[in-house]
Amino acid sequence: xxxxxxxxxxxxxxxxxxxxxxxxxxxxxxxxxxxxxxxxxxxxxxxxxxxxxxxxxxxxxxxxxxxxxxxxxxxxxxxxxxxxxxxxxxxxxxxxxxxxxxxxxxxxxxxxxxxxxxxxxxxxxxxxxxxxxxxxxxxxxxxxxxxxxxxxxxxxxxxxxxxxxxxxxxxxxxxxxxxxxxxxxxxxxxxxxxxxxx
Length: 198
Hints:
Layout: E1 4-7, E2 14-16, H1 19-27, H2 31-45, H3 53-63, H4 70-78, E3 81-83, H5 85-96, E4 100-105, H6 109-118, H7 120-124, E5 128-131, H8 132-135, H9 143-151, E6 159-163, H10 166-174, E7 178-181, H11 185-195
Parallel strand pairs: 1-4, 1-6, 4-5, 6-7
Antiparallel strand pairs: 2-3
C-alpha cells in the first residue's frame, strides 16, 4: 500500500518559462552559450558548501558584456516561475487521506530561499522538502531517494515517485519504488487514484 508520494519540484509543483529562451530574448545571449554556462554552474551550486551562485555567473556576464546586479538577475530568473495551484490542491487532498508528501529537488540556495519566501503555500502543503544543496545528494544519485526512505522509515514498496525526468524515474524504479513520468496533471491524478492502492 502506498503511504508516501515523493515529487520532483520544478515542472510539477512549479511551472516555468524556459530560462534560456527568456535570456536570449532579453539580452540576445545565444541559448547554446547560456545553457553551457547554466549546466556548469548548476553542477556546482546544487551541492552543499558551494560559493554564492552569482559569483560563478559574473565571468560569463563579463564575457557577454552584460552589466547586471545579483538582485536584477535572480529577480528576472525567478519571476518566470509560478506555482501550479492544481498540484498544490492534489498534495493537500493526499494529505487529507493520510498520505505523506515529500519534494525531492536538485536545487541551489538562492532559488530555495526565494521559494520559501514567495511560495509559502508550497511548503505548507507537504511534509518536507529535500533540496540537494542541503542534503548533498543530487539526483540521479540513489542516495537522494534512500535518504528520504531512511529518515521517514519507509520501504520502497510504500512509496510512489513522480518526476518529469525519465532518468530519475528509472533510478527510482531500480530501487523498487513505483515511479511515474509526469506527463500532465490529469494523467497523474488518474494514475494515483485509479491505478494505485492509496
